[in-house]
Amino acid sequence: MMQPGDKKALAIIGAVVVAALVIIAGATTLLVRGHEKPLPTISFQAGDHLTRAEPSYWCSVKMDDCRLVDRNGKFKLRTYDHPVAIGERVTLSVPKEISDGPWTLIAEYATPRGIARVMWLHLPGTTFTQILHSEPDRVLMGVEVSSISAYREKTPGQDNDSLDVDLSIRGTFSIRTLPVDFRIPNTATLPDQRG
């Protein structure tokens, strides 16, 4: 039979153990949340100005874990402003998280004939940096970098043996580069080009 003093001692020890468990669980949660891997950033430099752009959203290679996406799978497009003067050279660099897989770069140019889009597809491990130019007859308006995931989705209506698949984009980076006070001379859309 337990004495009243023993019951009181056990109650105090139990309360201390419960309090310690709550403190440990709370501290673990804060430490894990604080050490989430940072988002990859692309570097965009023109002249003396450098912009490090984060993606509008970022997903794992298998598209099973996405950040910056709401419960409905929607994201807010994040566009960075980095005006590029006409005649200036631009250096765009991607980190290893992007260059380890296939990635695309789309550049939009204002030309006297209209707006031209040029697209480059980079294979894994081949390109980390690309040089672009903004010239009087081909003014750089903006760039978009997309990282392609390893997840492949069958195109609707295709059988299981078909190679026709849609690739998923695991992250998109967007930078507006229009020079200050520049007016687009012709807004007609020209056919896309491959770089």
The proportion of residues forming helix, as a percent range, comes to 10-25%
**Order of strands across the widest beta sheet?**
5-11-10-7-8-12
SSE series: HEEEEEEHEEEEEE
Q: Detail the poorly predicted runs.
A: none
Structural shape: elongated
Beta percentage is 35-45%
Structural class: alpha+beta
Please characterize this protein's 3D structure:
It comes from Gordonia sihwensis NBRC 108236. This is DUF2771 domain-containing protein. The chain crosses the membrane at residues 12-32. With 195 residues, the protein is of the alpha+beta class. It folds into 2 domains: 1-36; 42-194, no CATH class. Helix content is 18%, strand content 38%. It has 2 helices and 12 strands. The chain has helices spanning 4-34, 96-99, and strands at 42-46, 49-53, 58-59, 66-67, 79-81, 89-93, 103-111, 114-122, 129-133, 139-154, 165-176, 193-194. Strands 5-11-10-7-8-12 form a 6-stranded mixed beta sheet, with no helix packed on it. Strands 2-1-6-9 form a 4-stranded antiparallel beta sheet, with no helix packed on it. It starts with a helix and ends with a strand. The model has no long low-confidence stretch (mean pLDDT 83).
Describe this structure in a few short sentences.
This protein is of the alpha+beta class and 195 residues long.
Architecture blueprint of SSEs:
Blueprint: H1 4-34, E1 42-46, E2 49-53, E3 58-59, E4 66-67, E5 79-81, E6 89-93, H2 96-99, E7 103-111, E8 114-122, E9 129-133, E10 139-154, E11 165-176, E12 193-194
Parallel strand pairs: 5-11, 8-12
Antiparallel strand pairs: 1-2, 1-6, 3-4, 6-9, 7-8, 7-10, 10-11
Transmembrane segments: 12-32
Keywords: Membrane, Transmembrane, Transmembrane helix
Pfam families: DUF2771 (PF10969)
